Amino acid sequence: MRSHFLFLLSLLLLVSWQGSSFSAGRLIAHDSYLVPAASHASIESQGSMRTVRYRESVLSLKHEFAAQRAIKREEKKEEQGEEQKSKEARTPPNPGGALFLSLAMPGTGEIYAQRSVTGRSLVFWGVEAVGWVTFFSFRASGKAEEREYKRFADEHWDWARYRNTVSTPDDTLASEFLGELYEKDKGEFYEEIGKDNRFIAGWDTSLSRTTYLSRRDKSNSLLRTARYATMGLLLNRVASALDALILAKRGMSLNVSVHPATGEGRIALKKTF
Questions:
Q1: Exposed (0-12), middle (13-18) or buried (19+): which is 83, by Cβ within 10 Å?
Q2: What is the pLDDT confidence band of residue 63, given thresholds at 50, 70 and 90?
Q3: Sign, CA torsion 64/66/67/69
Q4: What is the mean pLDDT of the chain?
Q5: CB contact set of 138 (below 8 Å; sequence gap of 6+)
Q6: Helix (H, G, I), strand (E, B) or coil at 34
Q7: Among 62, 78, 130, 249, which is least packed by CB within 10 angstroms?
Q8: Residue 263 scores a pLDDT above 50
């Protein structure tokens, strides 16, 4: 309002100044005997100075008016932002949404339910990161060791050497059984030639068999740890989902909103159940 009043006042001054200038011009042109000729230049100089000052004042008022409008726009944006934040804070979290978020990525449901990153979400994130690192590293090591013990078995266990010892019907059945495994399930085949004493004759030395079993046990241990890591990842998701669900339900049952206390400059907390 103040800027509008100043702008209107400047316009009225301009109109009055133009009227006085016009009257002074007429006085100089038609009644030159009333004003000495030497003062004409002084009057014109004063008029130009007034014009310059007037233009400067108008520009200053325009700049001030534009600055005030910009300040008001910024204040309005800030008020809208605060109102949006207050609205989000008053909106209770959805338990189903919190549950789904934590199942997809542990810790995100807690952030949604608590409206901020807390220690709970960081713990679930940390467990998730450790679980994936453990899974990939141990699985890769276990698979590498598996390829090594199979290559070792191919070098030190021989079909011809084993079949030379087949002499009884039971040995024949065992040989046929091992042949089927070799054709259909290589994993079971490599397991049987190591742990089943009926197939010891296929090894070149007993030390080779011992070395093979040691490498195979190491591979199985590494792969077992990788499987445990996947179980840990699953449990971490379930724990995070249940935790986020509880937090979201707690946020629904106890919704705290802020209201200004009447008559005093204090803040009152209102609990709604």
A1: exposed
A2: confident
A3: positive
A4: 78
A5: 222, 223, 225, 226, 229
A6: coil
A7: 78
A8: no
